[in-house]
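Before a colleague's protein record goes any further, I have to sign it off. My question to you is simply how this chain folds and whether the tokens agree. I do not need a full report, just your reasoning and any doubts. This is what I was given:
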Amino acid sequence: EVGSVPTSPRPILALLGSQATLYVELIQVSLHNLEAGSPALLWVRPLLLKQGSQVWNLRATSDLLWPAAGFVAAYAEEVLPLLEQAKDPAPHEARQRLQAFLQQVCQG
């Protein structure tokens, strides 16, 4: 198609919390302040949050800049079945679930 920009598939990563797992699409790795000893940051797009047997679609939420530490590669065999199970929460509920998960991860 004329004028279209080819997009290659982006890696899917998982951030493991104590009671849930966040699956994200990696947009970009930010290395701009590594010289200052700061950790690498990842620009990620939330996709799914798996809490026990519940799976939530978080694609309505905002992108994140988050430290790279803690993210692991996720594989299609793991993610594709979750896409089929995912429930679509209201946008405000999706944001609340994402915020609660991120707070839990920060508190370790």
